[in-house]
Amino acid sequence: MDRMLHRLVDAARRWSILLAGLVLIVGGFAWATLSDRPSNPTPTRGEADARQTSKSASTTGRSAPSVPATRPGSNPDATRPPVPPRTDQPARSTQARHAPAQRPSATADQRGATAAAEATTGQSRQASPSSSPTPAATTSSGDPAAGRLVFRKCQACHSIEPGKNLLGPSLAGIIGRTAGTAPNYDYSPAMKGAGIVWTAQTLDRYLKDPAAVVPGNKMPFPGLKTDHDRADVIAFLAASSAGAAAASARPPPTSSTPASTPQGANGAAIGYVADAKYTLRSGIAEGRMVYIGVGGAIDGKVNPVLTAVEGQVVQLTLINGEGAEHDIVFPDQDAKSPRVTGKGASTTIAFRPAKSGDFSYFCSVPGHRLAGMEGQFLVTPRPAPQTVVEADISREPDDVPPPIGKRAPQTVRVDLLSVELEGRLAEGTTFGYWTFNGKVPGPLLRVRVGDTVEIHLKNAADSAMIHSVDFHAAIAPGGGAAALQVEPGGEKAITWKALVPGLFVYHCATPMVAEHIANGMYGMILVEPEGGLPPVDHEFYVMQGEIYSDIPYGQHGSAEFSVEKLLAERPEYFVFNGSVGALSKLHPLKAKVGDTVRIFFGVGGPNHASSFHVIGEIFDKVDLFGGLTTPPLAGIQTVTVPPGGAAIAEFKVEVPGTYTLVDHALARAERGLLGILHVQGPENPDIYNGVALPGAGH
Asked: Which UniProt keywords apply (predicted)?
């Protein structure tokens, strides 16, 4: 018994020595790690909250990619994971192009402004915020979250990201700055000489009537006419300015490792447009190793819950905050980052969750997950299909004016109305279209060579934008657009003479021109030659366009325009006549065996050319590029039409069946670009003898 007791005491003594040694080792490591941290430590939850002097202002000053099932209409900051701010980031490196960690604002939601403050088209480029806002400058009673939505109205013209400018200067740090003083931007003389310091009061006056406050400025923006819109957007700009000033005042870390190019799950560098962006920093909090959120709603939170909608692209940046080796793994998404070693090192990965569910993320370095580096990744399902009651904006293909025939030249009046409306993009999905006469494309106009065309352009009173029209058929400055920039509620008229026969595109030409076209403001005008065109049985009007939506193709809800995707030339949708199914489910083309068919085909674009093809047919005649002064081509299978270009294709249908209209860049059919020509009538076995199988062919 005594021997057994002695053995137990000896074993207990050895275990206590071992445990004490382990405690000393771990404690020494922790002490070395903590003592190596700079005076601006890795934030704990409380420290991060204290560092943000105005949580609401800092949060709304950041961009927030669309992630949750909730669509716009609720508070975006409450439903979207934010893009991380510049604060507490490593020194600028090669990550600047891709990494959200160094961008205070990057999405289309916040970039394009309501032309606020210094917004004159063709004005300067802003490199960085220049000063903190003055007390008077921030005394706005508006709601920054609501102002963020108002700010979208001119998203193609302005950014609140320092140094990032579109047609107008960046508005980062605008509060407290003198008008016309941002570096590296060529201001108009009127703005340079304005001598205005932008405060809440001067901004309110300018946004109400820009031309009255700065006479002679060239900004194509009519102003914000409601008090609450101006107050809200000023509050948003003030919050953004405060966040930018705080970020610029914070010294960078003493060292950093350049971040890697974003990678996919397989480690290969990829190009993409992220729907949800997060930044996490490794650190020690609550006595354990953790991930700490950086930016927006997750800022300072320990192992924050990350969310996304299935099918969205998630971008995650991991920053090494304390020097130990780390990585991050999303096992259910087959996504894993490279390891980051050394304080300030960072890496960025991107992946697309394929299914909804409650998943986890963690550090795969041995022992780190057990030490506390684990969090929740919640993927919500796509919203269920919903009944769409919004307008069908697609123009029917047989909406074609009658032929001119043989008549003398005359004056032809054309009335165009620019209308902004929510319309059906696809089943369960709507989009904010900008249109001529409420449809996409705008009406097919028809005149003859020698006619005088009298254009009356009216802009609907409830429009948010100035609109115009540029006729490729007109020999005039800007195709007439130089004289047809029409403010909401206004109307202007010009005349021009049709000198050259052919099929020509027209489109809105108000900056940013590509945005106006992409949102639906394009159409065509046919200038018939003297004597007209040869008669056919059917004439159809078809135009191809691109939709740059903020939500992925096929996701249901209310889609909004994405300027980032436009500039990257990466549309979510390709469409005939404005929407998915416009020329198949809604308004298919129809003919009978033996009929002759003429298709007036054009590409609104604004970026991609078309290889127009009718599967199962050969074009008997093609007026290439829409020209009618040269002989047509014959026996053509596919017609190349550039953006802003047109073609006239004719053929005779001799066999009954279903014929498919496509761009022969056929992947675009998977993004909505498909039309149908139904041909009815007797079989013609001399030309074709076969039985079409259901679902066969393409």
From this structure: Metal-binding, Oxidoreductase
Sequence spans of domains, the chain = 144-241, 276-380, 411-680
**Amino acid sitting at position 511:** P
Q: Which helix (H) or strand (E) element contains residue 414?
A: strand 411-426
* Residue 201 DSSP symbol: H
Which residues are bridge partners to 289 per DSSP? 284
Give me the sheet containing 306-309, strands edge to edge: 306-309, 374-380, 357-362, 329-330, 335-336
**What is the spatial distance between Cα 69 and Cα 339, in angstroms, rounded to a whole number?**
32
DSSP 149: H
DSSP string, 536-548: -SEEEEEEEEEE-
Q: Measure the CA–CA gap between 533 and 291, rounded to whole angstroms.
A: 71
Contact 550, 562 (CB under 8 A): yes
Q: What is the pLDDT of residue 71?
A: 36
Over residues 66-95, the mean pLDDT reads 36
Q: Provide the CATH number for the domain formed by 144-241 in this structure.
A: 1.10.760.10
pLDDT in tens, 658-697: 999 999 999 999 999 999 999 999 999 999 998 876 655 5
**542 close to 583: Cβ distance less than 8 angstroms:** yes
pTM over 0.85: no
Q: Looking at residue 99, what is its pLDDT?
A: 34
The tokens 């596919």 sit on which residue? 638
Q: Which residue has the tokens 């919004």?
A: 390
Segment 245-298, tens digit of pLDDT? 544 444 444 433 444 445 554 444 444 567 788 999 999 998 899 999 998 789
Instruction: Answer yes or no: are the C-beta atoms of 533 and 591 closer than 8 Å.
Output: no
What one-letter code names the amino acid at 550? D
327 annotated ligand-binding residue: no
470 annotated to a ligand binding site: yes
3-state helix, strand, coil in the chain (%, to 5): 20, 30, 50
Q: Nearest 5 degrees, angle CA 413-CA 536-CA 626? A: 60
Q: Can you read off the two tokens belonging to residue 643?
A: 């953006």
- Contacts of residue 35, Cβ cutoff 8 Å, sequence gap at least 6: none
Domain pair 144-241 / 276-380, same fold? no
Is 368 annotated in a binding site? The answer is no
DSSP 366: T
Angle at 53 between CA 52 and CA 59, to 5 degrees: 55
Report which residue type is found at 294.
V
Q: Is 157 annotated as a binding residue?
A: no
Q: Which of 111-120, 424-433, 511-520 has the lowest mean pLDDT?
A: 111-120
Give the pLDDT confidence score for residue 109 in this predicted structure.
36
- Look at domain 411-680 and name its CATH class: mainly beta
Rounded to whole angstroms, the Cα distance separating 450 from 368 reads 80
Residue that is written with structure tokens 């498919």 in the block = 660
HEC assignment per residue over 30-52:
HHHHHHCCCCCCCCCHHHHHHHC
The two structure tokens encoding residue 205: 């006056």
Domain 276-380 in CATH 3.30.1330.60? The answer is no
Residues 410, 495: Cα–Cα separation, whole Å: 12
Half-sphere exposure in the Cβ direction for 77 (13 Å, CA): 25
Q: List the structure tokens of 424.
A: 């059906």
By the 8 A CB rule, do 66 and 149 touch?
no
pLDDT given for residue 413 in this prediction: 97
HSE of 683 in the Cβ direction (CA atoms, 13 Å)? 7
Is 508 a known ligand-binding residue?
yes
Give the tokens for residue 592: 């009978």
